[in-house]
Amino acid sequence: TKEDVEEYLTIALEMRRRVKEQLKKIKPIEYWNTDFSYVDLKTSKEIFVSVPEQPAPVELPEEPKIGVVMGLSVLTVYGNGVIQRFEVVADRGKGKLIALGSMMRVMRESLKAAYEYVGHNQKKLGIDVDFKKDYDITVLATQMGVPKEGASAGITILTGLVSALTKRPVRNDVAMTGEITLMGKILPVSGIHEKIVAAADAGIKTVYIPAGNEKDVQLLPPDIKKKVEIKLVSTVDEVLNDALIGYKVAPTKEQEKLAEEFGEIEREPHLILRELENAIRRCIKFNLQKISENWWIERIPPDVRQKAEERREKDEIKRDPIEYLDFTDYLKIIVRRDNWREVFREIFKDREVIAAKLKELEPLRNAIAHNRKLTEEEMEKLKVISKDIITTIIRRSTKKEVKV
Asked: Which one is catalytic: 73, 110, 152, 386?
């Protein structure tokens, strides 16, 4: 479209000007004349492209406010992350959606997706007004003079919309990034490292990052991870329930099942560990049984099988052999080439990610087995990883209508 072409031309001309400026700094000589404008052939109007200055840091709200939410973006020109403040206001009106400022095309698409999601999920979100008919929605995004990279403002705009329509304030210590779908899923985005660094430098306490970017988060330097709490999220409900004060989205049947299966997470370490191991064992056994009735012989690596059987021989009770496995064994079973290809890739998606999680749990398991008290950081790691793995297993089983 013409709109797209204008956006591309603007960025290209801006980059051309910046290259010329840098060349002059290297050596102050004359360079060929360069055009910093383009002509609209339809109107014969010449449009000059200016170079925006590096934006000043966004001031964070001093207290939680209705409709005010912080997003995370990456600047096209500078390549670094930036905090972007969004303000959403819902007033009595005629159902208009007003975007203030020169919002780029990708951000307008994010706004439309958020607006439509709220429209399709009013009851679930606790919005009891016909906002598309009786309310005007005004959205203001700061720092729109500097081009941003990609579409990642969906969850930020949605949070502001729900806040404005429910009159629930947004926490003033959080920031977020992620594109959304009409089904309420949060999709991975680019520039995670730059965005989290910007959040940490700005004093943000918690950031919401798409679960699909987990690998990017794992690559972050340890000092950055210590500065800010990183919450991996898969659905908009997870963000809304945590970011909006005094607000909860009505739970789905799947979420009720998760709560029933996992129970209260604030429990003793050995209970959390037992819940997790039971879920993994059931997952392995159930799925491998579907492949072969003789799964224990055909699908369990020989060294794992031998170790489990030796442990069983020493046990007077003689439990199911799978109960003698540990996290190292689970990992070998899950990532074994045929098992991964035929079964576990569909459940866990990324082999490196599930491998990293199981490896992190092994020393915690050993500490619990030897009655060593976990540190606060270790306890939090056990809770987060356990809940994530159990959630993944149950969600997959729910899709297959299998009770694990």
From this structure: 152
